[in-house]
Design goal:
Chain A is mostly helical. The first copy, chain A, is built from three helices and no strands. Chain A is 85% helix and 0% strand.
């Protein structure tokens, strides 16, 4: 069955935006990986509550300005940070088993 | 305490990428809102399993190419789609209560 043209146009936009999201997320994880390595090298604590509070507040403000639900933006950040922690734990297990 | 300059530079990049993510997400929800309205107008079913399978496969391919965990990309899409469904349900409740 052929997709209705207006629906197809919207789906094409969604696909473009999803590709952008995936690429930005890949770049973000490259940054957090380097943060993890840097913190390990400088012997800094892996979590920083003050920094996380700032991130949440900033993202909620940005979300509001972009007409996105601030609660969703906060949930989204928590979702990503959970993955970052998973990466760091995997990296630590690898480092431990190779030492 | 002053943040170590290399850590600060990485955090600045993360903040820029997060702002990009929030704005792309806001645009994506605008698209899915229009999809919801269009489907309601054309009396099309709200979910489309074939389309969702295509989205998952495509996102996993894009993730692999960008060196992002494909399983994470799939979880990420599921996380967003859950929010889209929540939006559609809220819109339906609003439409019902105003009719």
């Amino acid at each position: 069955m052929e997709t209705q043209p207006e629906l197809q146009a919207l789906r094409d936009s969604i696909d473009n935006l999803d590709a952008a999201l995936v690429h930005i997320l890949a770049e973000r994880f490259k940054c957090t990986q380097r943060v993890g390595e840097l913190k390990a090298r400088l012997d800094l604590p892996s979590s920083d509550a003050a920094r996380e509070r700032q991130q949440v507040e900033r993202l909620r403000l940005l979300a509001r300005a972009a007409n996105l639900d601030p609660d969703f933006a906060e949930k989204f950040l928590a979702f990503i940070i959970k993955e970052v922690i998973r990466h760091h734990e995997t990296a630590r297990v690898r480092a431990d088993s190779s030492s």
